[in-house]
Amino acid sequence: MLAEFRTSFAASFLSLFTSGSTLICCALPALLVSVGAGAAMAGLVTTFPQIVWLSEHKVALFSIAGVMLVGSRVMQWRARSLPCPADPALAAACTRTRKVSLVVYWISLGIYVVGFFFAFLAPIVFA
Questions:
Q1: Burial status of residue 28 (CB atoms within 10 A of its CB: 0-12, 13-18, 19 or more)
Q2: What is the Cα–Cα distance from 35 to 40, expressed in whole angstroms?
Q3: How far apart are CA 98 and CA 91, in angstroms?
Q4: Which of 19, 26, 56, 91 could disulfide-link 84, Cβ–Cβ 3.0 to 4.6 Å?
Q5: What span, in angstroms and rounded, lies between the C-alpha atoms of 60 and 22?
Q6: In the predicted model, what is the mean pLDDT of residues 54-74?
Q7: Residue that wins the pLDDT comparison between 74 and 1
């Protein structure tokens, strides 16, 4: 039972990091260029050339992030009906962990949607 909660919690945070990489890959460059900070973008790419690699492999990046989000949601769904411990302190920690995990998931999903928009839809809409 406790292992199920830890797995769900870890999956939520892992989905946050994978969806955050979608922002770095696609939304950040689009934002910097759109506000006229092309020089800042050039400096960022010079400092962190991995951004170019992420942008070149955005389909794989979004696929992996999407799988992580789906996996995280499935684990949360399965853990939703698990009983919390009888000890009041552990029960409070269990409830708090469920709430934090769900908040982290929705933040991750929001980040993913923003990154998806800038990576795939914005070039079509604003072309």
A1: middle
A2: 10
A3: 11
A4: 91
A5: 10
A6: 89
A7: 74
What is the model's pLDDT at position 8?
67
Which residue spans within 8-69 are E strands per DSSP?
A: none
Cα–Cα dist 78/46, whole Å: 44
Which residue type is seen at 60?
A: A
Number of residues that this document lists for the chain: 127
CA-to-CA dists, residue 64 to 1, 11, 39, 107, angstroms = 27, 13, 30, 17
Give the closest residue to 95 by CA, choosing from 79, 74, 73.
Answer: 79
Would you say 16 and 107 are in contact if contact means Cβ atoms under 8 Å apart?
yes
Q: Are 15 and 68 in contact (CB under 8 A)?
A: yes
97: amino acid identity, one letter: T
